[in-house]
Model the fold of this input.
Amino acid sequence: MTRNVKMANPGETLQDAARTMADLDAGILPVSEGDRLVGMITDRDIAVRGVATGKGPQAQVKDVMSREVRYCFEDDDSEAVLQNMSDIQVRRLPVLNRDKRLVGIVSIADLASISQAARTGEALGGISRPGGEHSQTFH
Done:
């Protein structure tokens, strides 16, 4: 799990969020309002929901972020987290403590590195299947 996660805020620009991603060599940022996790933004969100629809670098994160945040808890079993990632077709999940405060982000690669290789392969197969509830278009 990656700790000390840099957060975006809904009112910052896409350019600022993209610059942060570039500085961190990351493709995703949690979005917070105060101490509350309110969304996630990816480099793909910026490209597909932002640039492709004519939004410029001064558009705000809230205009393209995903508001539905899927997460896991820091004390969840890795097997359950992998199954969840497969079911909802994501490669990264925010990790919250039981007070629902962000403590990190876990990736499928993190889980693969802790001796879950076979299960990680199964989860990746589920994540990579066509379709699913996660789409780049707003519902």
